[in-house]
Amino acid sequence: MPLGEEKNGACDRSIYVNNPHLESMTEDILYHFNLGTSTHDLPAMFGDVKFVCVGGSPWRMKSFTEYIAKELGLSEPNADYPNICAGTDRYAMYKVGPVLSVSHGMGIPSISIMLHELIKLLYHARCTDVTVVRIGTSGGIGLKPGTVVVTKQSVDSAFQPRLEQIILGKPVVRSTELDGELAEELLQCGKDLAEFETVIGNTMCTLDFYEGQARLDGAFCSYSEEDKQNYLAEAYAAGVRNIEMESSVFAAMCKLSNLRAAVVCVALLDRLKGDQLTSSHDVLNNYQQRPQVLVGHYIKKKLNASKKS
Amino acid sequence: MPLGEEKNGACDRSIYVNNPHLESMTEDILYHFNLGTSTHDLPAMFGDVKFVCVGGSPWRMKSFTEYIAKELGLSEPNADYPNICAGTDRYAMYKVGPVLSVSHGMGIPSISIMLHELIKLLYHARCTDVTVVRIGTSGGIGLKPGTVVVTKQSVDSAFQPRLEQIILGKPVVRSTELDGELAEELLQCGKDLAEFETVIGNTMCTLDFYEGQARLDGAFCSYSEEDKQNYLAEAYAAGVRNIEMESSVFAAMCKLSNLRAAVVCVALLDRLKGDQLTSSHDVLNNYQQRPQVLVGHYIKKKLNASKKS
């Protein structure tokens, strides 16, 4: 039931919530954002949002906001961007112009709580035509460290494009399909920039960083180096170019709510060559900025195009 | 393979890592803590740790450290407790005397990364006789808001005491058994204090806060109020008294590494009566301190007993 569907026949792409119970609630408290429909004027605060960038680390999402403000010519000298969710330490949220930047912590459950509340926020704020991009870090397979991967399909540990979601104790399978056109546009942005390598490939999403990603350096490990290499080779053969921990539920929830969505992650290391992050802080920091630069370029291009049209 | 096992026949309870690969590593980087065996003297920093308290929120873990310092008579006027993981925003870590306090974010994947690195940290630091307690928040079933639940068994969405962990693409089932004696001792602490209600019961651990816990207020909901009530009634009949998102992997990983472990969570609301957290900030804040007070009492009691013996 697309409660968010426009009734006026406009071609705006609306945000869907699929929950008939929301209509009967007099108030909706977005608890983990410390925001609510009674306490905040969500349409005034967020109605102009057209791009949402999400990433694990609150620091990175603040730095993205500073970066995009400068790129879009919206930054003022000594401007500080307050954390909109300052009353909680669960997530951090920043906004500049049409760009919202939100942290999501690590793993499927953490990003899923954030996305439930983000989708409701965008719905309550009556946003339209929103594009959401996850900008993150990942382990690469057969890639030079620092390569940026635009996700074609988010796949599970058996390399299938699906997410199993438990509802009332029963598994429900959801598609993790992403927007193919958007992925191609982002790949093109990487080529335009020519500052680092950008590739398109499948992204494996796991529930665990160590055993779930065949690492040999966790507290527990019951398999050999050879077992690890065989598993990663199978993943590579299935088109997997990087591994992270949020893309599947991100893809599934954005699809369910009619949000144009993409995943852009930098590979911090090549998992075929090792498991530990031994690059220097400065090198890793430079790598982490690459998805920001790529998505910043995309947003600028889109906004310039819409100004002209 | 219990690499951490004592060879001297002492009755100390050692931390096990179950990973033969660790021995051949010249350096171990605990990436998400921003600590490492080459860069930090882990035995000097952490060798005296006897209690580790973990919880989702970094703010709460700092406030627990301030509280326990006062309780144990270890606080100095104007003392500030620096975040040991200050170089990263993934987790926060504080220490006072024998008590380590670490945040873990939300959900199984987030706490699992932290626990892999915590277990290796305790192992590298050659700690012995460590007790780990998760102090958290949860949704209660049939409980008065503010009731503290000590977990008997951590169960999955089908009410079974197990965790399915994917390793190299294949499911492995692990036991989520906790230390029964420790749970009884913690329950007794609640009775000693008599400041709030404390009960023992099963805790359901889910991968999702909204659909996974039968909430009616997420962005998506495909079931009725009646379906929700039926599911929660089934959970109650299976002994479930609260629902949270970390206990199963916490129990499983502590068991695998020989750590005495318990889960103590306050119920912020009664899910039979609603889904949203409508209590005031002050009331919720008071509730969140209860697991800290209970576990603080337990630690004090144990340290006093060991001084006498």
Short note summarizing the structure:
Chain A has helices at residues 42-46, 58-71, 108-124, 180-193, 225-237, 247-256, 281-308; strands at 29-30, 35-36, 51-55, 93-96, 99-103, 131-140, 148-155, 162-167, 170-175, 198-205, 240-244, 260-270.
CATH superfamily of the largest domain in chain A: Nucleoside phosphorylase domain
Radius of gyration of chain A (Å): 19 Å
The oligomeric state of the chains shown is homodimer
> Can you count the helices of chain A?
7
Tally the beta strands of chain A.
Answer: 12
Measured by residues with Cβ under 8 Å of the partner chain's Cβ, the largest interface is: A-B, 69 and 69 residues
Sheet with most strands of chain A: 5 strands, mixed, barrel
Q: How would you spell out the order of helices and strands of chain A?
A: EEHEHEEHEEEEHEHEHEH
CATH class descriptor name of the largest domain in chain A: Alpha Beta
Q: List low-confidence stretches of chain A.
A: 1-10
Structural class of chain A: alpha/beta
Helix content of chain A: 25-40%
User: Which architecture of the largest domain in chain A per CATH?
Assistant: 3-Layer(aba) Sandwich
CATH topology of the largest domain in chain A: the name is Rossmann fold
Number of domains of chain A: 2
Strand order of the largest sheet of chain A: 6-11-10-7-12
What is the overall silhouette of chain A? globular
Strand residues, percent of chain A:
15-25%
**What is the mean pLDDT of chain A?**
94
Terminal CA distance of chain A: 33 Å
Binding site for phosphate (chains A, B): 90, 134-137
Binding site for substrate (chains A, B): 213, 215
Catalytic activity (chains A, B): uridine + phosphate = alpha-D-ribose 1-phosphate + uracil
GO molecular function (chains A, B): uridine phosphorylase activity
